[in-house]
Amino acid sequence: MSAKKYLTFVIYGNDKTYYQGAKFCILSFLANWQGSVDSRPEVVVLAEETEHFSDLPIRLFAISPEQKSEWSLNNTYHFRIKNRGLKYLCEQLPLNKEDQLLFLDTDTYFTQPTNIYFDSISSQQSLMFFPEVNINSLPDTNEYAVIRNKDIVLQDGSTYRVNPESTMWASAVIGITGGQADAFDYADQLIQALRKEGCTAHTLEQFALSEALTRVVSLAPAKSWLNHYSTSGRKNWGRKVLEQFFTDHRERKFEDLLKQAKSVSFTRPLSEVIRGHIYKKSKKIKEMFSRNKP
């Protein structure tokens, strides 16, 4: 049997933009897939509100309130939901050793062939978005400083220590084989151990997975293969683009939606760019005045 390919998303909360973003990401990814319909990856979504995807030919799993509470450590660290959700999907599919799983953040879209993602995942190589920073280069005032130069004991009795190459990769893209799925469990041990050490960084989820994967494989960056609208100004504009797209094409069939998705632009008009700069400057001025108030 040939290895299976899965395109996956983990979505929680009630922000409509996340759900519309995921739907458009699915359309954009498949619209730029080179090959037959049968060669496409199977799309799998794990979501708190699965009803947003009922009109798409995809596989759905629901996040229960109990799972959300457990995965977020009783709502103290909600970024852990991605880690636990992806491991849950690996088990539910189930993901065999040679199968490939690709996770994408919901604010991504594509304008070039997307086969490169699965072509770049192997038993020796996983994907993440890009290497953000070596933890050792951060100042002593940074949240990660508290975990350096320490032997940290994990739940399984093993010891973790930051090494000279310990680099945090952004996790907007995660691509693994089934043989690498155990990295999610090691990363989870690391998340919880580092929190106990007093590390309060909200990026622990992606740092822990970076460290978990680099123990067993090399990492390749996928940043140059996609587009995103993750900054605040771009996201505000992206929300408008998505809303208009799904309003205009609500009656179209799935294959027709794929064609329409290829013509969508998230480029902001100059007026929106200027408005975004004005908003940022006014926000900084307000913050400055609030800090200086007696």
Helix content: 25-40%
Please give the number of β-strands. Answer: 13
- Radius of gyration, in Å, reads 20 Å
Q: In the CATH hierarchy, what is the superfamily of the largest domain?
A: Spore Coat Polysaccharide Biosynthesis Protein SpsA, Chain A
Strand order within the widest beta sheet: 3-2-1-4-11-6-12
What fraction of the residues are assigned to beta strands by DSSP? 15-25%
State the main characteristics.
294 residues; alpha/beta; Spore Coat Polysaccharide Biosynthesis Protein SpsA, Chain A; 2 domains; two-stranded antiparallel sheet
Describe how the helices and strands are arranged.
Elements: E1 5-11, H1 16-31, E2 42-47, E3 59-62, H2 65-71, H3 80-92, E4 100-104, E5 108-109, H4 115-119, E6 125-128, E7 131-134, E8 152-153, E9 159-160, E10 167-169, E11 173-177, H5 183-196, H6 204-214, E12 218-221, E13 227-228, H7 232-248, H8 254-261, H9 270-292
Parallel strand pairs: 1-2, 1-4, 2-3, 6-12
Antiparallel strand pairs: 4-11, 5-13, 6-11, 7-10, 8-9
Helix pairs in contact: 1-7, 1-8, 3-5, 5-6
